[in-house]
Give the backbone structure.
Amino acid sequence: MGIGQFLVVFAFSWAFGRFSARAIDPLAERIRARGREEETVSGRVIG
């Protein structure tokens, strides 16, 4: 059971890593870019 649990956790971690690289990282980059644009337009940082 211990080895199986290790393999399942490894598989889920690997799958989530692939998913986040394809789906979440591009969205995060868009949010960062949008924040940079807004920062330069208004000249202030909120938060």
Q: What stands out?
A: The chain has one domain: 1-41.
